[in-house]
Write a structure and sequence with these properties.
The protein is mostly helical. The chain folds into 2 domains: 164 residues, Tetracycline Repressor, domain 2; 143 residues. The chain is built from 15 helices and 2 strands. Strands 1-2 form a two-stranded parallel ribbon. The radius of gyration is 21 Å and the shape is globular. The protein starts with 7 loop residues before the first strand and ends with a helix. The relative contact order is 0.10.
C-alpha cells in the first residue's frame, strides 16, 4: 500500500526546466580561458572572433543542457530523498522517456554542430564535455555514485570549460597567415592551469557535497540520495576540501611563475576567496548548494566581481620590476 499521489504529466515548461537554462551561468568558467589565451596569442578582435565567441558559448550551453537533461531524468528516483531537489520537475511530474532522450539528442547534436563551426579543437572539447556527462550519470559508469570520484568527475567540467574558452581565442592550425603557423602543442593551455582549475572546481564541489550532507542530516537518507554519501563523513569531506585547495594553490603557483608572474598579486585575494567560500559552506542550509542561492550573498558576489576585475587587469598589465625581482631572487 502507498499513499503516493499520481504525478501530473510533464509540460513543455517542465522539459525546459530539466535542461536547466538557469545553470548556463556556470559557463562563465569559459571566460578565464578566453582571457588567458588572449593575453598569450593577442588574438585580433574582429567579426570572425565575435562569431566564434557567440557560437562557442551557445554550443557549450546546449551541450551542458544535454547533460542536465539526462542527469535529472536518471536521478529522479534519488532526488526525492533530497530536501531541495525533491521539488524538481523530474521528481514531481511524469516525464516521458522518449521525449527526454529526444531532447538530449537534439541538444547534443545542435551543440556539437555549432562547436564544429568554431574549430576542430573546440569540437573535441565540447565532445569531451558531453562524454563526461555520460560517465557521470549513466550506468555502468555512473561516477557520481563512487566516493571522491563523484567530486573529481563532476569538477573536471571546469577545466573543460576553460579549455573551450581557450580554444575560441587560440590560433587555428594550418591557417595561411604565418604568424598563426604554430606547432599544435603550443596552442594547448598549460597543464598547470588545467590542474589548478580542476582542483579549484573540486574544492567548490566538495564544499557543496559537505553542505548537502549536513542539510540531509541523516546518513541513511543521504545514502539513498547518493550512494557515495554512504562512505562520506563530515570529516572526510572537510579533509578532501583541504586537499583540493592546497593542490589548486600549488599548481596555480607553478602557472604564475612560468606563464604570468603578474598574477602573483592576486594570490592573497585568491586565498580570501577560498576562505570566504568555505565559511559560507559551513553555514547551516548553506547557499553553496545552488548558484541561485549563492547569489543572495551580496558581499561575496561583489567581492567576486572585484576579484575578477583584478585578474583581468593583471592579465594584460606588465610589471617589469617583478620579473627582475624573480630573476635576481635566484641569486640569494
Amino acid at each position: 500500500m502507498t499513499d503516493e499521489q499520481p504525478r501530473k504529466t510533464a509540460t513543455l515548461t517542465d522539459y525546459i526546466a530539466i535542461a536547466r537554462p538557469d545553470n548556463w551561468v556556470k559557463n562563465l568558467f569559459m571566460v578565464p580561458g578566453m582571457l588567458f589565451a588572449l593575453s598569450i596569442f593577442h588574438t585580433p578582435f574582429d567579426s570572425e572572433l565575435l562569431f566564434k565567441i557567440v557560437i562557442g558559448i551557445i554550443s557549450i550551453c546546449l551541450v551542458a543542457s544535454a547533460n542536465y537533461v539526462i542527469n535529472e531524468y536518471l536521478d529522479a528516483g534519488f532526488d526525492q530523498f533530497h530536501p531541495l531537489k525533491k521539488k524538481r520537475s523530474s521528481v514531481v511530474t511524469a516525464i516521458n522517456p522518449v521525449i527526454v532522450y529526444l531532447e538530449y539528442a537534439v541538444l547534443a547534436v545542435i551543440g556539437l554542430a555549432l562547436a564544429y563551426l568554431v574549430s576542430l579543437k573546440f569540437l573535441s572539447t565540447a565532445a569531451v564535455l558531453l562524454f563526461m556527462g555520460v560517465i557521470y550519470n549513466v550506468q555502468p559508469f555512473r561516477s557520481k555514485d563512487r566516493v571522491f570520484l563523484d567530486v573529481l568527475s563532476e569538477s573536471v567540467n571546469n577545466p573543460i570549460r576553460f579549455a573551450a574558452g581557450w580554444f575560441i581565442f587560440s590560433p587555428a592550425l594550418g591557417a595561411p597567415d604565418s604568424k598563426w603557423d604554430l606547432d599544435w602543442i603550443n596552442t594547448l593551455p598549460p597543464v598547470s592551469i588545467i590542474i589548478a582549475y580542476w582542483m579549484g572546481g573540486a574544492f567548490l564541489m566538495a564544499t557543496k557535497r559537505f553542505a548537502e550532507y549536513r542539510l540531509i542530516g541523516n546518513p541513511e537518507t543521504a545514502g539513498q540520495y547518493r550512494k557515495s554519501f554512504r562512505f562520506y563523513t563530515e570529516n572526510s569531506l572537510l579533509v578532501s576540501m583541504f586537499f583540493y585547495a592546497i593542490t589548486c594553490a600549488f599548481f596555480m603557483g607553478i602557472f604564475l611563475i612560468k606563464d604570468r608572474i603578474e598574477l602573483l598579486f592576486s594570490f592573497p585575494f585568491f586565498a580570501l576567496l577560498f576562505s570566504w567560500y568555505l565559511r559560507i559552506g559551513l553555514l547551516n542550509d548553506s547557499p553553496v548548494q545552488g548558484s541561485e542561492k549563492l547569489y543572495t550573498r551580496k558581499w561575496f558576489m561583489l567581492y567576486l566581481v572585484l576579484f575578477t576585475t583584478l585578474l583581468c587587469v593583471l592579465m594584460f598589465v606588465d610589471i617589469p620590476w617583478l620579473h627582475w625581482f624573480l630573476k635576481n631572487a635566484n641569486n640569494y
